[in-house]
Amino acid sequence: MSGFAEYDDFDGLGLGELVRSGDVSAAELLDEAIDRTELVNGEINAVIDRFYEEARASAAAALPRGPFSGVPFLLKDLNLLMMGTVTSNGSAMWRGAVAAHDSTLVTRYREAGLVIFGKTNSPELGLQPVTEPREFKPSRNPWNINRTPGGSSGGAAAAVAAGILPIAHASDGGGSIRIPASCCGLVGLKPSRGRIPQGPDRAEGWAGQSTSHVVSRSVRDTAAMLDATAGAEDGDPYSAPLHSGRFVDAAAIQPGKLRIAFSRAKWGQGNYQDDAVTGLDQTVTLLEDLGHHVIETRPSFDGEAAGAAMFTVICVNTALAVQQRANEVGCTVDELDMEDGTRLTMAMGNAITAADYAQAIQTNQTVGRVMGQFHLKHDVLLAPTLSSPPVTVGYISEAPPEEYGNRLFSYMGDNGIYNQTGQPSISLPLHWSLDGLPMGMMFSAAYGNDALLLRLAGQLEKAKPWWDRRAPLHAAAQS
Question: Using CA atoms, how far apart are residues 27 and 166, in angstroms rounded to an integer?
């Protein structure tokens, strides 16, 4: 590697401070990240597009003196545009689709001083909680390469867990930041709806269920990136409540005694497995030791109806995305090269009536009302992020058709509820299975109360540190 042996000692903010102080150059950091990518990516398949020379030109130029000045960064290959690069959405359908401009979020990343040098693997259209697209092949988990790093931000999480970089872009429409954070032992915050801009080409994703942020090694990186990128842009249909002050400062403040609810039961299909319940019980004990009031309870609503509503929104939006792509390239939908699962999702979306879609939106809003009332009495709601440790590669994507739904929904936790309600939700690496695999615990708060989650996350990071835990397949150990 390039020789910066201390690279792993710093999070993104720490590396940015080194660049601003002149102790290390942006070019040196970029070379380190590139060397690490080439060293481990053949085994984990996290980075599927590289633009090293363009990144080197950026690192050599005068960078903004932002909080992440000179820090290497990767974008997820889904929906986000960077001028002159392809966003393929994990699919052959968008092969060669070069962006003519930057997304607003990419502009904000650049203004924060980040040096973008590649894109990470995603399942086709972000439709699975694993990252195994036919177009780019599976990403693998650095903790065990036979296991998934999660999805849909699996490539991003694998890259961070393998030591390529300390923080990477991710997005979440049904758990896609929190699931890979859980699988790879990272911090993964899904911000409140409307906190992160999605323009200029669209105002929201999946009817407001989807948003962007990052996966990272430290709570303060997650918080500081929220400071760097949050805020409405002109024309947004809505925005999250403003936070007075900086999120990174909130992460350093003690949260006080919180009223924390937890649940051993799922709204969705299946049950939490023993490893997940063990992690939950240990986390409850930790919270009580920290002085919080913890009670086993949860909001009451129709989980089956909520799940159906989310599925309706995803199917309809998938049908729209595929039709729009067909229009762009001048062909029929049938002529597009897509995975069987995507074609089935599209077909179901086309079969859904307008009234069904309106009902799904209404169901999402009803659940949001229930959650709003619940959080008047309970500050935070805790549950395992996933039902089990990371599943094996192929377990879901290669499941027989008659078994696919059961495997998919039984594996997933209740991540999607918080996409439907717009609440902030964070997965923290607080537990490891008996086999040594990471398992996140998920904390969710009232809409707009991202700062409260960051205060609690900062406290838990100090009480049960995860910084020194490294995956067996780590760049520093491979050199």
Answer: 16
